[in-house]
Amino acid sequence: MFPIFGILFPLTITSYYAWTEFLPQQPTESVVSNFAVRPGDQIFTEVFVAGAGGSPNLTGFFGQFVIMNLTTGQSTWVYTPRGTTNVGGSEAVCIMERPTVGGSLPDLADYGTASIINGSARRTNSPRHQGYTNCCGAGAFAIDMINDATTLSTAGAGSATSVNFTWKAFQ
Q: Please, which residues bridge with residue 20 across strands?
């Protein structure tokens, strides 16, 4: 609460940031400090395992994140050591997630509907720009985000090439 002339008013502070997380060795998000995001920005991401700056290779030393803000033209690469994590290459996951902040779950932002469009995964050992399979649409396995008995967000096929996440509740 924020006092003005002795009257308390609710104060909401909102922050937006890009983050990565390479499981299981990175149990919480790692903020990408050199990458600005704003509500409404269109973001492209690519995640793969490889050597630093190299082509995808499931036995590479790093999880590599390519993040591009298509609205502003900004881009960055993030390298996270793979450690002992073995990546089999048999599944891909597209997630709308509420991160843990300071050890607890914050209220979920009211994002209306957000979409993953043209989400795809490249088959193991396929050459760059080849061997992609669609991970969206009717074939996707959608899981709703639920906290206790409250549905926070639903997931579902938006089209043959997209998944829509629809906000339902804050907490």
A: 30
Report the topology of domain 92-171: Jelly Rolls (2.60.120)
Taking the C-alpha atoms of residue 110 and residue 34, their distance in angstroms, rounded to an integer, is 25
Whole-model pTM above 0.85? no
pLDDT in tens, 82-102: 888 888 777 777 777 887 777
Question: Domain-by-domain residue ranges, the chain?
Answer: 18-88, 92-171
Q: Which CATH architecture has domain 18-88?
A: Sandwich (2.60)
Instruction: Report the DSSP beta bridge partners of residue 3.
Output: 8
Contacts of 145 (CB under 8 A, 6+ apart): 96, 97, 98, 108, 151, 152, 153, 154, 155
How far is 154 from 40, CA to CA, in rounded Å?
19
